[in-house]
């Protein structure tokens, strides 16, 4: 027997969902009756169909609207509404506390969010290629003189050999950065780029605007350029097939236009790619396995264990160098994964241990602490003012509230506060991001369009609310109604209250930051004041582009005759950079191990001393014009003489590059590399051997204005080399640039310590105000009994000073240890003196006094008649 | 019509309520209209019209007793109020008046 047909179940359920309860009965009845009628008249199928139509037609406001009733039916939302009302009333009643809490929290949130953005950008470096997890850079490792070193340049034949001989390696590419003058439409730009194998674009899938990855670098005269270079050369990104002249020699046609490379790529500074084969055809570099000048990138096959692959290839270079080098037993190559390129680039004893990751961790800790300081403010003020809420808690408990619901209430209150603070923080971030970007040299922004932002922002607010609100919530919710309602409730004044502990923690962190700021400043100052050993003012370096080397003599004469330069010389490179390194030097009395000693090599032809302003301590200056044999002569610096243990250096003959060099003079040590490092042994050689002196160094005429000098020099350069823009670097500027990293850290640390002082003081201000208010009566009585204003101020501030002292006792050793570790990275460094701690302690006490005494004095000046009359 | 505008469908529903004197509820009105006019109407449209009529004061409603044929569900019974009756009459009168005003020659 078939059961009676039923109306569509889903339609019924829909109706029950949207229909107001008081109308449901009647409507279902109507629907049912019609359904039964229609089965008889039009059949089951049509009846069900009509049922559906009727249900849908009933979705109208008058059906959906719930019946109004005068009796409340409490739901969860009702209670939450009550919590919000109470929260708003509390905020409105104590506006200054609300302000302190919201201000502190928002500054803390903004600061830690900015740091989080920075950390995120650091962590995503080189992580966005589609094959990131299979990409590696090949590093060299060897042991010299007992110390193991790792370096990132490799021999030219390595990449092809790896790809050919090892099945684990999917692809490999060589890479060599370069700076060329590019010319198109009579426009010259001197800009950074690189030579790379065609496979490079298979390894790194940079998005192409036009052209394709496979073909663009395989053509012998194809060039791939970025969008911004295309725009600056041609004014359009539609540059495919257009001609660019490279270094005023060879013409290349554009075979691809890349979108601009992302900032968080290690290749972000390059603007074009040229075929690596063109580099080979220029005859630069060498095919020897012993010359390490190329970068090698490899792509491993899918599911190949990098450690296994590394194990197979690690002896490749050693095998080829057998017989070329004396000892290849320690020569290895190893793979450095793409995800670690940016953060782990510092080598220590042949291992790439850390690098930027240290700063990332440090800033992470700072961010966490700043947020914590802001949260502590909230915790302290809420627990201190708990008395104000005690009655409310009592009443709620008597009315039947569970502890759980009270905890929920107070936490939702703090989340609400965190929400307001978050809105303010958002505003602060938007306002401060340009400044922060200038300091950090990044391009950070808030990704309002991304899902992750809208997940992260509420998550952050919730986290802050929980962090700040959990403890006060449990503290408040655990009040016993009997005690608070009788009015005998007094907060326990324990010797060690959690509140005091938290204030100490806040100030400990602040004191550590103050110490760090002072030490970093001293260290930078120390290095800046280091005697550089040469005259940095008015010293200019320029590369000899194009035709300049062949016209050098005339150029030099013109420069001197123009009066813009007082001295001009050729050199291997600017004095402020390391030009070249030299191993395998031998001298009378040197041992075999001495061949591993690394000398920094500079070159000159003449006028080295007058141009650079270095001092001579023995012998004479190298001068090719006066003494033609000086082509094969060298000058040493004092450190080199010491390293070589030479008694009478002048006149000694030393040997490197298969040739003897006569020592003609000894130079006073000068600082050319990092101002924090010890001075290396230096050889300044004449122009006798292969390496060409491609740069010129000029000492400008101090009698003229610098702008005038530059104008004249540019004219002279243009005369001999019209096709190239005149580009130069100043010695003092590039020397200053060496402090940029430390200065950046210094600025950030002082910024953050300033912020944490501000937030901590906000909290202290609130606490002091509350204590003063609590003790109004006591102060009144004391004053009537003859207490002076000073003694009352002392009474109110004493406790905070003790807390500061306690914080200093904890913070000073931590700060000393942390900064001691930081300084260990620098050879030329300060020792942390007692002055740092004195200044820290005094400034901390001064800040605390200023914050607290305002409230204390205000309280002490009140007329006791007023404070005692009101009851 | 003294400020009360009666839509065409509302007029039909009001008439149907009047026809089912004492036994006018949603489903009954639907059936009545469908029989009288031979067109299908939605229950939602009828209830909506009844709701509006009640708001205008043309009908009143009360909950009826439990009847077994509806599975124990109650009916909301509508009846025409005095005001509703007067409005209907006015409508009819107006129509008649207009019919009478048609000249005899118009149809020939």
TrEMBL record, chain A:
<dbReference type="InterPro" id="IPR003838">
    <property type="entry name" value="ABC3_permease_C"/>
</dbReference>
<feature type="transmembrane region" description="Helical">
    <location>
        <begin position="500"/>
        <end position="520"/>
    </location>
</feature>
<dbReference type="InterPro" id="IPR025857">
    <property type="entry name" value="MacB_PCD"/>
</dbReference>
<dbReference type="GO" id="GO:0005886">
    <property type="term" value="C:plasma membrane"/>
</dbReference>
<feature type="transmembrane region" description="Helical">
    <location>
        <begin position="414"/>
        <end position="436"/>
    </location>
</feature>
<dbReference type="InterPro" id="IPR047699">
    <property type="entry name" value="Permease_put_prefix"/>
</dbReference>
<dbReference type="Pfam" id="PF12704">
    <property type="entry name" value="MacB_PCD"/>
</dbReference>
<feature type="domain" description="ABC3 transporter permease C-terminal">
    <location>
        <begin position="365"/>
        <end position="481"/>
    </location>
</feature>
<keyword id="KW-0067">ATP-binding</keyword>
<feature type="domain" description="MacB-like periplasmic core">
    <location>
        <begin position="601"/>
        <end position="671"/>
    </location>
</feature>
<feature type="domain" description="MacB-like periplasmic core">
    <location>
        <begin position="99"/>
        <end position="315"/>
    </location>
</feature>
<dbReference type="GO" id="GO:0022857">
    <property type="term" value="F:transmembrane transporter activity"/>
</dbReference>
<keyword id="KW-1003">Cell membrane</keyword>
<protein>
    <submittedName>
        <fullName>Macrolide export ATP-binding/permease protein macB</fullName>
    </submittedName>
</protein>
<feature type="transmembrane region" description="Helical">
    <location>
        <begin position="98"/>
        <end position="119"/>
    </location>
</feature>
<feature type="transmembrane region" description="Helical">
    <location>
        <begin position="751"/>
        <end position="772"/>
    </location>
</feature>
<keyword id="KW-1133">Transmembrane helix</keyword>
<dbReference type="Pfam" id="PF02687">
    <property type="entry name" value="FtsX"/>
</dbReference>
<keyword id="KW-0547">Nucleotide-binding</keyword>
<feature type="transmembrane region" description="Helical">
    <location>
        <begin position="800"/>
        <end position="818"/>
    </location>
</feature>
<feature type="transmembrane region" description="Helical">
    <location>
        <begin position="830"/>
        <end position="852"/>
    </location>
</feature>
<feature type="transmembrane region" description="Helical">
    <location>
        <begin position="362"/>
        <end position="381"/>
    </location>
</feature>
From TrEMBL, chain B:
<feature type="domain" description="Transcription regulator PadR N-terminal">
    <location>
        <begin position="15"/>
        <end position="90"/>
    </location>
</feature>
<dbReference type="InterPro" id="IPR036388">
    <property type="entry name" value="WH-like_DNA-bd_sf"/>
</dbReference>
<dbReference type="InterPro" id="IPR036390">
    <property type="entry name" value="WH_DNA-bd_sf"/>
</dbReference>
<dbReference type="InterPro" id="IPR005149">
    <property type="entry name" value="Tscrpt_reg_PadR_N"/>
</dbReference>
<dbReference type="InterPro" id="IPR052509">
    <property type="entry name" value="Metal_resp_DNA-bind_regulator"/>
</dbReference>
<protein>
    <submittedName>
        <fullName>Transcriptional regulator, PadR-like family</fullName>
    </submittedName>
</protein>
<dbReference type="Pfam" id="PF03551">
    <property type="entry name" value="PadR"/>
</dbReference>
């Amino acid at each position: 027997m078939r059961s009676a047909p039923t109306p569509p179940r889903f339609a019924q359920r829909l109706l029950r969902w949207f229909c107001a309860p008081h109308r449901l009965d009647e409507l279902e009845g109507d629907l049912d009756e019609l359904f039964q009628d229609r089965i008889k008249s039009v059949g089951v199928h049509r009846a069900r169909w009509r049922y559906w139509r009727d249900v849908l037609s009933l979705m109208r406001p008058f059906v959906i609207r719930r019946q109004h009733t005068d009796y409340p039916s409490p739901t969860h939302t009702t209670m939450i509404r009550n919590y919000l009302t109470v929260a708003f009333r509390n905020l409105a009643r104590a506006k200054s506390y609300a302000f302190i809490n919201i201000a502190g929290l928002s500054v803390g949130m903004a600061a830690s969010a900015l740091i989080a953005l920075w950390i995120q950008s650091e962590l995503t470096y080189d992580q966005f290629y589609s094959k990131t997890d299979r990409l590696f850079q090949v590093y060299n490792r060897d042991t010299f003189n007992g110390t193991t070193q790792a370096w990132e340049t490799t021999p030219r034949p390595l990449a092809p050999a790896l790809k050919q001989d090892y099945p684990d390696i999917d692809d490999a590419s060589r890479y060599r950065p370069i700076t060329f003058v590019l010319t198109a439409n009579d426009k010259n730009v001197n800009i950074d780029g690189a030579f790379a194998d065609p496979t490079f674009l298979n390894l790194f899938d940079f998005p192409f605007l036009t052209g394709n990855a496979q073909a663009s670098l395989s053509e012998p005269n194809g060039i791939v350029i970025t969008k911004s270079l295309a725009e600056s050369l041609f004014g359009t990104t539609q540059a495919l097939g257009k001609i660019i002249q490279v270094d005023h020699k060879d013409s290349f046609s554009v075979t691809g236009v890349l979108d601009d490379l992302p900032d968080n790529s290690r290749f972000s500074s390059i603007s074009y790619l040229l075929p690596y084969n063109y580099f080979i055809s220029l005859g630069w570099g060498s095919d020897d396995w012993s010359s390490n000048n190329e970068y090698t990138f490899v792509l491993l096959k899918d599911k190949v264990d990098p450690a296994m692959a590394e194990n197979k290839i690690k002896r490749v270079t050693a095998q080829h160098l057998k017989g070329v080098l004396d000892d290849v037993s320690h020569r290895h190559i190893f793979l450095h994964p793409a995800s670690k390129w940016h953060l782990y680039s510092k080598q220590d004893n042949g291992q790439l241990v850390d690098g930027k990751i240290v700063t990332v961790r440090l800033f992470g800790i700072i961010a966490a602490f700043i947020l914590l300081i802001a949260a502590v403010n909230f915790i302290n003020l809420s627990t201190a003012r708990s008395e104000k809420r005690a009655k409310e808690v009592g009443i709620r408990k008597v009315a039947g509230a569970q502890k759980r619901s009270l905890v929920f209430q107070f936490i939702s209150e703090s989340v609400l506060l965190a929400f307001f603070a978050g809105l303010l923080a958002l505003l602060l971030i938007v306002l401060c991001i340009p400044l922060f970007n200038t300091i950090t040299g990044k391009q950070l922004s808030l990704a309002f369009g991304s899902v992750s932002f809208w997940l992260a922002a509420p998550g952050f607010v919730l986290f802050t609310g929980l962090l700040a609100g959990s403890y006060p919530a449990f503290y408040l919710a655990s009040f016993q109604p009997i005690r608070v309602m009788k009015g005998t409730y007094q907060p326990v004044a324990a010797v060690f209250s959690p509140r005091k502990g938290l204030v100490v923690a806040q100030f400990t962190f602040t004191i550590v930051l103050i110490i760090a700021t002072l030490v970093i400043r001293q260290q930078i100052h120390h290095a800046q004041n280091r005697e550089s050993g040469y005259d940095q003012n008015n010293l200019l370096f320029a590369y000899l582009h194009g035709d300049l080397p062949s016209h050098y003599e005339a150029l030099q004469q013109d420069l001197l005759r123009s009066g813009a330069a007082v001295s001009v010389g050729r050199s291997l490179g600017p004095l402020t950079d390391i030009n070249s390194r030299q191993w395998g030097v031998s001298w009378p009395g040197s041992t075999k191990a001495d061949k591993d000693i690394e000398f920094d090599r500079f070159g000159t032809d003449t006028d080295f001393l007058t141009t650079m302003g270095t001092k001579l301590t023995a012998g004479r200056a190298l001068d090719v014009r006066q003494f033609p044999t000086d082509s094969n002569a060298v000058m040493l610096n004092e450190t080199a003489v010491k390293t070589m243990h030479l008694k009478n250096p002048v006149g000694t003959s030393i040997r490197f590059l298969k040739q003897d060099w006569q020592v003609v003079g000894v130079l006073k040590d000068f600082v050319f590399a990092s101002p924090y490092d010890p001075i290396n042994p230096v050889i300044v050689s004449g122009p006798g051997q292969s390496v060409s002196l491609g740069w010129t160094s000029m000492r400008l005429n101090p009698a003229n204005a610098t702008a005038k000098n530059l104008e004249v020099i540019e004219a002279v350069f243009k005369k001999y080399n019209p096709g190239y823009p005149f580009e130069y670097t100043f010695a003092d500027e590039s020397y200053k640039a060496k402090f940029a990293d430390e200065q950046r850290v210094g600025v950030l640390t002082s910024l953050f310590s300033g912020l944490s002082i501000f937030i901590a003081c906000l909290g202290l201000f609130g606490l002091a105000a509350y204590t003063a208010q609590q003790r109004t009566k006591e102060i009144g009585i004391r004053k009537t009994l003859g207490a002076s204003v000073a003694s009352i101020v002392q009474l109110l501030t004493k406790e905070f000073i003790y807390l500061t002292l306690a914080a200093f006792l904890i913070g000073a050793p931590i700060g000393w240890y942390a900064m001691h570790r930081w300084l260990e990275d620098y050879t030329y460094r300060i020792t942390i003196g007692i002055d740092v701690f004195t200044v820290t302690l005094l400034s901390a006490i001064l800040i605390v006094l200023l914050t607290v005494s305002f409230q204390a004095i205000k309280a002490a000046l009140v007329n006791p008649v007023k404070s005692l009359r009101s009851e | 019509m003294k400020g009360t505008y009666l839509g065409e469908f509302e007029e039909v529903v009001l008439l149907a309520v009047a026809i089912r004197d004492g036994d006018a509820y949603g489903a009954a009105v639907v059936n009545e209209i469908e029989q009288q006019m031979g067109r299908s109407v939605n229950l939602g449209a009828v209830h909506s019209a009844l709701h509006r009529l009640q708001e205008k004061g043309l009908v009143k409603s009360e909950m009826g007793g439990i009847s077994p044929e509806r599975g124990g569900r109650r009916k909301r019974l509508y009846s025409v109020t005095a005001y509703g009756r007067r409005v209907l009459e006015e409508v009819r009168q107006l129509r008649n008046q207009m019919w009478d005003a048609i000249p005899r020659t118009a149809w020939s």
